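Appendix C. Worked example: TonB-dependent Receptor Plug Domain
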Amino acid sequence: MKINKLSIAVVFLSGSMFYAQETKQDTIIKEKKIDGVVIQGSSNKKTETAVLGEQKKAVIQKQAVSAEEISRKGISNVEQGLTKVTGITTVEGRGLFVRGLEERYNYLLINGLGSPSNNPFQKIIALKQFPTDVVGKLNIYKTFNSNLYGDFAGATFDIETLTIDKPFTKVEFSVGINTLSTFRNNFKVAEGADGMNGYLGLNSRDRRLPDEIRNARPDNYKFTPDQALNSFKDSWNVDNVKSMPNTSIGFTTAQKVKMGETGNLGILFSLNQGSKFEYKDGDNNQFKGQGKGSFIENMNFLNRKQYNYEIESSVLLGLGYKNKGTNVNLNAIYLQNVNNIIEDNYGYKDGQVLNKTTFFRTNQLDVSRFLDLQLTASQKINERHQIKAGASYVINNYQQPDRKIIEGNRIDPTTGTYLTGSNIAMRYGGNNIIRQYLDVDSRFYGSAFAEYQLSLGEKGDRKDFPIQIALGYNGFSDFRKTSYRFIFGRTATSSNPFVINIDTPQDTFNASLRNGDLYYQEGSDISQFYSSFYQIINGGYANVNLKPNDSWDILLGARYENDMTLIRYSKQSEDFKQNLEKTKDFFLPSLSVKKALNNKNNLRFSFSKTVTRPILIETMPITYINPDNVNIVGNPAIKNSENYNFDLKWEYFPTNKEMFAVNLFAKRIDNAIERSLVASGNATGSTITFFNAKKADLFGIELEGILSLGRISEALRSFTLGANATIMHSDVERSQDQLNMERPDWFDQTGETLRKRGLQGAAPYTINADLKYELKDRNNLAHTFSLVYNVSGSKIYATGGAGTDNYYEKPFNQIDFVYQGQLTKNWNVKFAVQNILDSKYKILIGDKNYLPTNFEQGNNTLTNYYRGTTFNLTVGYTF
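Step 2, the predicted output written as structure tokens:
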């Protein structure tokens, strides 16, 4: 690692901050929007200090982010909150990385119940979708315990909803302005998407497959002119609007009703809606090598302009009954995300260097809907016996309906001059007009758990029994069907080029449909248009917690997990489906030991074996087509990874508000899953696909701490400095499939070998830091100012092949400022400035290629763009 990177880490770690804080509290008056929900038994552990105290006492390495911290740092969603924890970073559009491991190595629980992803391109739900007003605590498990699902290597996240301590009702409104995206003229959205139907996500109904083929197998159906004019409800036109400020509104109410002498019923209802405009402008390139004696050259050299209009909605209804040792909770969680995307690309693709005036547009709608119904209960029979159980049923669907692609160029076919404005030249035929329909539908998802806890021995003067035993079960069933279909614009005769306005082509297409110059015909591959995915996980476990005295805490765990996976699909041009069965049994031991050296120092050790299952897109047997010819190809033969995890940690708590910790960790990952980006086998375009490495070894150190600056000077007593960092090294042993893909052909003659490399997605370092200033005004109302910084080191985005180096995601430095103030008993305000540095997000091809390079304009960028700086004001009223 470079010295300057290490020096930055050391500066921040002078008072390293541990953001592991938990809370269930009345601090509802200070919250906004986050990702997770759960109603549980009440507790008064609501402050950052209380969360820190719980971490100190726990035998497992469990961290948490409290509702108090969520509010103080201006955290607007769960994903943002989790990045405040040591070793966790968020990566553009790809979720959370823990200890440098990609999102596929994480798992999500909601109220302790398994949760499927609502997006086939992500392992877990996009955690920005949960409203913060109902989040009591975000739990993060970075060491494994046998009552967790075995799908664990980075972390397991457990989202708990707010405990109802007393009745309240809250209304909150937020408005945000982005320096790059807000008030932009000619911001492009699909026709009608900015209306009420688009705001509610109802515009997807007009983009469904036409009735003529919706429930039929593909048979190259040709639409009549009348059908083509009337059966497709969505237009090719786009609207040019002025992008308005981002807004959100939330309503939350929590009420308590007395039930009998000692019982009470809590009722929680939350409704949140928000919209956001986002503009990105940058490079979209690809590279290829042609063999020994050639160069690494551009396959694509494109400028990409992307317009995103995103609407997020959430509804939560929760009922919680509590009476002495009885707790029963019922939750209904609904999440909807609608993202309208217009993407324009200019330049050349597929190595057509002389055709630098290529233009193509994608008009895309991503819709995900997620409904989670949960029932959980616990019963304390007496001091020594307790049982708890829960079950959930999830309806989960993802769509990209009528993803329209249109291609042409910017040269006038008559004059040969460059077309200006929104005009392009095109002709019918080829792949110039395509409509794609992707559906990933849940046929069934159910999750359940049950656990019996027994305490043995005598407590004496101690708080806990010396022996605690837990026996339990948890598991889930996930059945999904994928459908992927295509409709092409065809012509009966050779089509002459013509000029259209790309924003309003619908009238021209309609005229051509009427006169027979254009017709629509389905072109789906009859053998591959659908596939099915079945997964059943059943796990049984036993934990024995031994506490021989006040200083020792030992947790022994054993888990048996049966994984039954079946993928039904057809290979290209095959008539019949084949069953790919992947059934395996796993025995997963775990050990956690905590030694309290004194009342301020802990020493911890943990070991476990776990597994990692791939993201759905990584194993889906489809070729996902993109107009820039960078396609995603799933690998149904991909294997689960098997992981061996070791941790050794020292913690020091000088006061109840401060801590410092050092954690040494190591992992062996057999069959590690990695992303690759290589030239397609058909000599056009590139392919993103996935392989198992033979194994990967990782080891590193985590440093974290919280320091009150009052230690330095009494004048600084209102300041708290926190920082955490992870420094890691990884090494991969490639599998034979990877060697075949990465190793250039000429190595057989030259005797050259591939260089060693680290694990794809593993960052060599991550740093989070936080400087907080707190004060109370003359009315004893709190005001908090926070400056937050985070960054992660350069990591492999995808491995290369055929002579290219790997592709590296470069560091993205982010600084945020947050002010949180309680103006009166009822009114609170929050002001945040996010991404103050406005760094550029970049993925570059590495500089250690096996061939010389000849990049267009010397540009080695795969993709890049700015995000702009966002100013956000939130006002809330609680009564």
